Amino acid sequence: MLKNWNKPQRPEENELEERLIEARGRLFAQQSRIKEHKLPVLILMEGWGAAGKGSVLAKVIKNIDPRFFKVATMDKPTEEEKRKPFLYRYFVRIPEAGKFMFLDGGWMDEITKDRLHEKSNEIQYKERIGSIRRFERQLTDNGYLVLKFFFHISEKEQKKRLDGLREDKNTRWRVSENDSWQNRHYHKCLEAYGQYLDDTNLPAAPWYLVDAKNKKWAELQMLEIMVNGIDTALQNHALATPLLQNTFPLEPIARLSEISLDQTMPEEEYKELLDKYQKRLGELHNELYRKKVPVIMAYEGWDAAGKGGNIKRITGALDPRGYEVHPIASPQPNEKARHYLWRFWNRLPKTGHIAIFDRTWYGRVMVERLEGFCSENDWQRAYNEINEFEHELNEWGAVILKFWVQIDKDTQLMRFQERENTPEKRWKITEEDWRNREKWDQYETAVNEMLQKTNTAYAPWHVLESNDKKYARIKALKIVIEEIEKVL
């Protein structure tokens, strides 16, 4: 893109001023429509050091109500961020519906720096490119407007600006070591940046090259692209997104009706194995921390199937400083206003720690599907999006353990009645539980489809037969130990 770029012709000063006034007015007027249509706008600003991104951004945001935008300068990852997946620090910063997020630097800068300084090889570079392409596509598929700008100046112009900044003691600090290195290796950087732009120039999230030699002209280019992009997004916001074919390896898995539930475990055997497995899991937890391996456990299952008791036996073996249990309920307003996976990205563990989810991202293809909280296009897309999410976690090095806790309908009824008749357990049973029970067959159909379409080789499902809770608890502990031992 960079080498074959046809630089746009800068208009005469009078025309430039007129177009600036018009574009600023359009952006100002668009704010109410963006809020009304709940359009989230993510703007990524990349480019050469001293290309003027900051000064142009300062002018652009003057046309937006400060309550409806945020700006983040994406410097090198913090130590905390380095202990999370690569995409973590970008996904958690996506804007709420109806608001803007401006990123000064981002995933392009991070990936190309690693490549230029030989901190990543060709295979790692291609893996990151795949992650970015999936990330940007997921955002646009879920209604985000993603605008990516690259501010371009010549080697000569960059050197002139850097020298000017160095000459003034009050601006000398603005010239970073990377800016100087970039100018000394301009042609090497030009090659890397051009390759990256080509690799990530997506139909729904294309790159826009900005001629940044003149700041006023650069502002106009950015503004006009923004307002035209916003108009198009507002016109197309109701269109359904094409479904993508799953490209991840799937493993066969039995349907729920084919699973036998007559397994039992005597009390003495249960106590003996519980003690044995909890001790072993405690040992492994220490090793996980030392080797900085993250673990993610995802629990789904029927109401009253025994998820809570199962989780309790897992956590009973762990150092409380090294794990967190996340009970997932209906999304809060700030969560509902973002991509449905955002609240799970926010809860990922650090390396060496364990995150246990009591209900998960699979709500998208179960309760949200059946209760009409999302469109059919939304939940149909979600299978592939979830496989992509778990693929990112696997590439990061996480142990992913997904449990479906299975019981039959008669067992559920017996446990519901026991809860209602036991005062200290009555809080566990709600009207919603009874309503969900009436939709048992619909839920079973949805669960079977979920299991079939997300039982990947890297994140398989484990069904826990829980008519006998003791059996299910021991089976879960055994699976957790075996999977962690494989990785360690």
Give a structural overview.
Helix 1 (13-36) packs parallel to helix 10 and helix 12 packs across helix 20 (469-487). The protein has two domains: 13-236, P-loop containing nucleotide triphosphate hydrolases (Rossmann fold), CATH 3.40.50.300; 256-487, Rossmann fold (3-Layer(aba) Sandwich). By secondary structure, it is α/β, with parallel strands linked by helices. The protein contains 20 helices and ten strands. It has a five-stranded parallel β-sheet with strand order 2-3-1-4-5, with helices on both faces.
Keywords summarizing the entry:
alpha/beta; Rossmann fold; 2 domains
CATH class of the largest domain: Alpha Beta
Taken from the alpha-carbon principal axes, the silhouette is: elongated
Largest β sheet strand count, sense and barrel closure:
5 strands, parallel
Taken as a percent bin, the fraction of beta residues is 5-15%
Rounded to an integer in angstroms, the radius of gyration calculated over CA atoms is 26 Å
Q: Structural class from helices and strands?
A: alpha/beta
Uncertain runs are none
Per-chain topology:
Blueprint lengths: L12 H24 L4 E7 L5 H8 L8 E5 L5 H4 L5 H4 L8 E5 L2 H10 L5 H20 L3 E8 L2 H13 L9 H8 L1 H14 L7 E5 L3 H22 L30 H25 L3 E7 L5 H9 L7 E5 L5 H4 L5 H4 L8 E5 L8 H4 L5 H21 L2 E8 L2 H13 L9 H8 L1 H15 L6 E5 L3 H19 L1
Parallel strand pairs: 1-3, 1-4, 2-3, 4-5, 6-8, 6-9, 7-8, 9-10
Helix pairs in contact: 1-10, 2-10, 5-9, 11-20, 12-20
